[in-house]
Structure formats: C-alpha cells, structure tokens
Amino acid sequence: MANAASRGSHPLDTMLAISDVVTNQRYAKIYARVLTLDTPTVEELSEGFDSSTTTVYEDVKHLVESDILERVTDTQPHRYRARQIDLHVGTNEDSYQITPALFVALARREENENIQLFLDRHGVSGLATALEYGRDYVQGRMNARIMAREQDLPVLEAETILQEMRDVLLDVDPDLEASPDVDELDAAVDERSGE
What we know:
Residues 109-172 form the DUF7437 domain. The protein is mainly α. The chain is built from 10 helices and 4 strands. Helices cover 62% and strands 7% of the residues.
C-alpha cells in the first residue's frame, strides 16, 4: 500500500493513503506541521514532537511513499511539502470532503479539548461535517443555530465547534475569510429555515 498512492494508479490508492493519516495521530500531526512550517526538514519537524527523530523520519518516508508529502530538495537535508488533498467520499446518505483542514483538526485533538470532545461524540465523519459547516461559517453564510438544527446538536456545541473549525480553516487558508454580507446571511438563514 505504501507505494501504491505514489504510482497514482487509482483513486482508491489515494483514499487508502489518506485513511492512514485520518487514523494515525502522528501522521496527522506531521502533515499539519509540514503544512505550517512550509518545507521543513525532518530535524525541524522533530522539534517539539514526543517521538524520536528516527520515528519522525520513518513516518515522513511513509507519507512521501503514500504521496501525502513530497520531497522538494534532492540534497541533504531533504525538505518536504504537504500535498494539497481534496477527496470527496460519499455514501448513499452522506458525502464528506477530506482536505488538509481535516488533517489539521485531527492533529489538534490532543491539545484541544473541544475538538477531542466533538470527535468522541461524533467521530471523524462528524468532524468532517463540522468543517463543511465551518467553511460556510467563516464566509458568513452559516451560524450555530442552523448547524445545531440541521445536525441535531445543542446550539452551544455547534457554536463551540464552529469557532474551533474557524481557527483551523483560517490557519490552513487565511484567504478564506470574507466580510459577511448581512443581507446575504439573513437570506441564507431564512432560506435554510424554510421561511
């Protein structure tokens, strides 16, 4: 599996590689750190990690082979960049978008009680859904009441996770935030409310 995604032979290979990152906390943290640091070396990635440099090196090697990270220098020390991920996964009932923001949110769960609690209650699929609502929230097209009603959540829980997802999304893509158009937001709320 490790080399399959780098061959790019099938979208399923990419999905399996992404699944590794979703289910492995260290991989998510490494991806998020590479994204934040922009082309770090393994030594730079290792700073502040509980894992040894050797473990980080092995994880980076796996993520490069899986085509989640890419090596951007040929000389030592190698530098790495996070590949942009945009995968849509669907079932008969739901669809989810997997982007770098999901990996960053998963990487933050150890340090962020709100994200960890939300994950405990709603799983990775719930977090992916919260990110989708978060994108609209950042752009002024969503509020906590709507998310709470549509996802059958308490308003406070919706507001809390929307704030956390806002921080994640703006860290990943600072250009995402737009000044909300109050009239447009009211119209969107009315439309979703069925008024």
